[in-house]
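Dear colleague,

Thank you for sharing your sequence with our group. We've completed the structure prediction you requested, and as agreed, I am returning the results in plain text so they can be pasted directly into your records. Please verify that the sequence below matches your submission; if there's any discrepancy, let me know and we will rerun it promptly.
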Amino acid sequence: MGNPFNSFPDSDARVLAPLVAKADLSLPVLLKLKPGKPQDYPRDTFNLFWNARGDCLGVQILRGHGSLIFLPKYKSNDDVIETFLHRVVPRIYRTNAKSGLTDIFSSPAEELANARLQKLELIEQKLKENQQEARVQLADATREKANVIRADATAKQILTYYDLAKRQDDAALFYLYKIVEAVENKLGGEAEAIKLVGGKTEWKRIKRLANESYRDARHAPKPGDVIKEWSNTEIKQAFEDVQIIVRGYFATLFPSTTDAVGRESSEGKQDDRTVGPAN
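Please find the predicted structure tokens below.
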């Protein structure tokens, strides 16, 4: 947690607020601090960060006319230095410079501007926290997706065939066809697979291209087989067709997303969704 500096005496250290953004920290924080007991007045120790157990992770300690600031590791220490130099230091100097009578008075316009600035800083801090939460959710979802796909035997076959197709240009169509065949075998034949996955045009096109390439697309080409030369356009189209089919199959592994994914085919509506290369 980060100090919100919204109550006394922590509000006395509000100049450090730009540094106290949980979303900017490199988590987990591996070092906890044990500052001494703060004096009551004037307060000389301000905890900046702490964990769920209440352990101090960052602190400011005032000594004489100086200040020691201990901070945890950030995702970008360079950014923190920039923040300190351009947002914190000017505040410190403005605070220390208020020694004249005009400085101890704030006009209505100053108070309004200062209140707006503080509100925007709180919004900025909240946005950073929300962004960090979203990044964690995305990482969790990506990890879950990979686990679900790896746990499916047909999906594992698909990934293997796709990798082989990328590595072996002269037999790429054979392996792309094997992907289509694996999906058919899993879903109960071509008709049922097309019904569940979509991509009827892509399905027919990849089969036709494979059969035109050499005499039997169900088996890898033999040394004596005459293989039709493919154009770069045909190869690219074959990979794109298989990507549409694979994306549709992967969607069947996640029932809650099937309706959102829909049926992918070049027939009817246009769809540009693709699946990235499998590693």
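Summary note from our side: Residues 214 and 222 are 9 Å apart (CA to CA).

Kind regards,
the structure core
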